[in-house]
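[job 4417] fold queue: 2 targets
>>> target A
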Amino acid sequence: MKIVYALTLVVLLTSCSNRSKDLEGTWTLENIDYSEYFKDAPDDVRDIIGDRMATELERIKGKTFFVFGRNGELELKAPNYEGREVSEKGTWELNKSKDSISFDISIDETYAIVELSETELILKTSETPARTITLSRK
């Protein structure tokens, strides 16, 4: 029984220690879900703002990239309103338990890591506006 616990601990520690490396690379924005933020809003407000946010998401979806560098460098590339790609540089850092990530670009933000696989990264924040971001890597 002790061997099972020891093996489980080794697997958990190994998977956590590789999280930084697993994040490295280019991730593409696939979705931003604001439903948590608007859950208490009146229906008419939710509809108006939801439509605007859906339009904005369509404009940047698949064209916004998070580039996580090896030494905590972060580059965010996204189209501006003229359709040209603009870039902003900053940093990223995992917390000690490696279950959340902080970005420092133009503002500081912290996200819980909901899921991290080879092809999908789901991040969630309760900071205003509360949202869940889905990124993909191909």
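>>> target B
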Amino acid sequence: MSWPLLKTDVVASRGLRVLPLAFASAAVWLMPAMIGLLLYVFALITGASGAGAGGIIGLAVLLITMPTLSWLFVLPGVFLFWALLRAGWGGLLIALAVGATLAAGITLLAGGSDGYSVFAMAGLVHAAVFWLILRWG
């Protein structure tokens, strides 16, 4: 199944089953925790110490605990992208736009625009990985 950047085949996208959608959603939701766990193990194996170690371990702990809040944009993003996909708008740029839009909404809920770049990066990465899993699934 070929998925271009914007428009997709409506008939082909209606063939998407719940299992690949659920797998892609769970993978994207748990992805930060897996990366954080690998980073934490790496810090422990290398014996990182000093000021830099605190930053690495702090980032690892942040990533490990990220799934407790990331469902706030993963869940709505999945349903929004699924609806757009079924309407024929399931390309990569659409997925990235959904990720960036939800990241902007989360930023506003968090109380400002200072951290938008962090949320935007997370939203774009989550959206791209979700789209790639669906495309190859």
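[job 4417] complete. Note on B: The two ends are 10 Å apart (CA to CA).
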